[in-house]
Amino acid sequence: MFAYWEGVVNASTLAKLFKVTISNITKSLSEYRELYPDSLEYNKSLKQYEPTPDFTCHYIDESWQEYAAFLRINSQVYRSDYWGDLAMDFGPLHTGNVDPKIVRVITQAMNKKLSVKVTYYSLTNPTGIERVIHPIALADSGVRWHCRAYDEYRSEFRDFHLGRITVAELNESSEVQHSQDDAWMTMIELKVAPQPSLTEAQKQVIMMDKGREESFTVKVRAAMAEYYIQYHLIDKEVRESNPLVRPLYLQNYHEIKSWLF
């Protein structure tokens, strides 16, 4: 990854990153060079390995998403040593305040097939209400983390914002299965395009980071579709006036609106 993206492989940086000795990293690099002899060459003056003109990737998919995810996860160890603190800014965490003690109970319940007794706050019940839920999954909406669960209070599958749960206790065994939640199990396609009232030049600019076609399609779980639309500021229908307010719209809204809020 480092050779491909940054043109440098530094043993001391890798040792700190993976929390092993430099000798272990040096040994691994030697084994890599034996396996792929035309991949890396050692720059003695700079004391680092660099990719040769014949370098080929073998363990990464060469996508920006993969590299960016690595940098985000390892930013505290990697960026501060290698690029400096100002080289890349991932912004603040965007998925809200999640209490690890709450999530541990929910993940254990999912693993052990148990229900969970929670105290949950919502705009309908701003002082909190005790509910028994049967968690089946966790999901990131882009703004906050949710627990997808069957709710005994409303007798249906719902999304629970993890940040709004203040108490969580393991409860009785649960017979609830993923397969019972149609919205979670169903994958739908969102067909998204620039607002028709934009100029052709504006449409091309809008689509430059979406594949440069006239429209693009995203496949999501039906339960997560509304969150995707909200997070990416996609209008559900055509906006005749002020199209730049929300320059993208959902072309197939009427086909999938039954899954939306």
Question: How is this structure best summarized?
Answer:
With 261 residues, the protein is α+β, with helices and mostly antiparallel strands. Helix content is 31%, strand content 25%.
Distance between the termini: 41 Å
Radius of gyration: 24 Å
Q: Assign the structural class, choosing from mainly alpha, mainly beta, alpha/beta, alpha+beta, or little secondary structure.
A: alpha+beta
Examine the coordinates and then state which fold CATH places here, giving the name of the CATH topology of the largest domain: Arc Repressor Mutant, subunit A
Portion of residues in beta strands equals 25-35%
Under the CATH scheme, which architecture of the largest domain would be assigned? Orthogonal Bundle
Largest sheet: 5 strands, antiparallel
Q: What is the domain total for the residues? A: 3
Supply the number of helical segments. Answer: 10
Poorly predicted parts: none
Order of helices and strands: HHHEEHHHEEEEEHEHEHEH
Q: Top keywords for this entry?
A:
3-stranded antiparallel sheet, 3 domains, 10 strands, SH3 type barrels, alpha+beta, Arc Repressor Mutant, subunit A, 261 residues
Task: Report on the architecture of this protein.
With 261 residues, this protein is α+β, with helices and mostly antiparallel strands. 31% of the residues lie in helices and 25% in strands. It has three domains: 2-82, Arc Repressor Mutant, subunit A (Orthogonal Bundle), CATH 1.10.10; 100-180, SH3 type barrels, CATH 2.30.30; 186-259, no CATH class. The chain has ten helices and ten strands. The strands form three sheets. A five-stranded antiparallel β-sheet has the order 6-5-4-3-7, with helices on one face. A three-stranded antiparallel β-sheet has the order 9-8-10. A two-stranded antiparallel ribbon has the order 1-2. β3 and β4 (129-140) form a beta hairpin. α2 (11-18) crosses α3 and α4 packs across α5 (75-82). The longest helix has 14 residues, at 22-35. The two termini are 41 Å apart.
